[in-house]
Design brief:
Layout (H helix, E strand, L loop, with lengths): L1 H17 L7 H25 L5 H12 L3 H5 L5 H34 L1
Helix pairs in contact: 1-2, 2-3
Length: 115
């Protein structure tokens, strides 16, 4: 909860100081995503505590939200410009691999129909 509050305050200060320019960088979008997922995790855990533990599905969704805490580590990449450029290159490469996997899935689908 403390990190979520600290990240929220940081994001709010940046939005106030930079205005619309804040959303020009996808690194700032990542910060907003981390903050929103953190608050969603806090809300879901509060509902589960209030409701007496909730169901298995609610517990599983909470564990998925807790797994998104690893995105907080990506925030530290902004401190080192070299790591930031490597990460951006990696995301661009993953996008290209996704297109290749989609094409491969279409080929498998067509050959599956043809038999």
């Amino acid at each position: 909860v403390y990190f979520t509050i600290a990240f929220s305050v940081e994001a709010a200060i940046k939005v106030v100081s930079q205005g619309r320019r804040y959303f020009a960088s996808w690194w700032n979008w990542l910060d907003v995503l981390v903050v929103l997922l953190g608050w969603l995790e806090v809300a879901v855990s509060a509902v589960m505590v209030e409701g007496g533990g909730g169901s298995f599905e609610a517990g599983r969704s909470l564990s998925v939200l807790r797994a998104t805490r690893t995105l907080r580590a990506l925030r530290g990449l902004r401190a080192v410009p070299e790591l930031q450029s490597i990460t951006e290159s990696l995301f661009l490469a993953v996008r290209g691999v996704g297109n290749v996997l989609l094409l491969l899935a279409m080929v498998f689908f067509i050959f599956g129909i043809v038999g």
